């Protein structure tokens, strides 16, 4: 009987040590999700004026986009998102401009990385070995 308890305790200890890292990573995310849910609940209990009509217009734009996007999957993604973005930008122009600017910067950086990667592929195809450089090292050399 004691050997069974010891085996159970050993396996319990093994499980605890194995999952400790995962729990450490997941726990803050779950806590932040709970906090967000609580904040959302309190916000919706006493919303600002004109909140529900605005949310209705934006939501209706998304449903209209789903209705218009018959056919391809790309249309089903772009139409609702685009119409909701237009509705959002009508009611919240400053936030929409900020989001558009940040998205544009991110897309530019992504396109630049893609260009560099394609350039490296073509250089390696031509027979020249490509030396991968770290950006931090280049910046240090430029400042010296």
UniProtKB/TrEMBL annotation:
A GO biological process of this protein is: cristae formation
Any Pfam family hit: ApoO
* Residue ranges that the Swiss-Prot or TrEMBL entry lists as coiled coil: none
Q: Where in the cell is it found?
A: Mitochondrion inner membrane; Mitochondrion membrane
Q: Which UniProt keywords apply?
A: Membrane, Mitochondrion, Mitochondrion inner membrane, Transmembrane, Transmembrane helix
Family from the record: Belongs to the apolipoprotein O/MICOS complex subunit Mic27 family.
The entry describes its oligomerization and partners as: Component of the mitochondrial contact site and cristae organizing system (MICOS) complex.
This one is known as MICOS complex subunit
Tell me which species this is from. Coregonus suidteri
């Amino acid at each position: 009987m004691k050997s069974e308890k010891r085996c159970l305790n050993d396996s319990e200890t093994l499980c605890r040590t194995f999952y400790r890292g995962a729990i450490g990573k997941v726990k803050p995310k779950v806590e932040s999700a709970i906090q967000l849910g609580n904040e959302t609940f309190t916000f919706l209990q006493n919303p600002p004026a004109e909140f529900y009509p605005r949310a209705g217009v934006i939501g209706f734009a998304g449903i209209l986009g789903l209705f218009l996007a018959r056919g391809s999957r790309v249309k089903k993604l772009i139409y609702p998102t685009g119409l909701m973005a237009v509705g959002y930008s009508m009611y919240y122009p400053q936030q929409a401009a900020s989001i558009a600017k940040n998205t544009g910067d991110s897309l530019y950086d992504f396109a630049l990385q893609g260009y560099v990667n394609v350039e490296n592929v073509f250089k390696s195809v031509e027979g020249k070995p490509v030396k991968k450089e770290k950006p931090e090292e280049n910046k240090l050399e430029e400042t010296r």
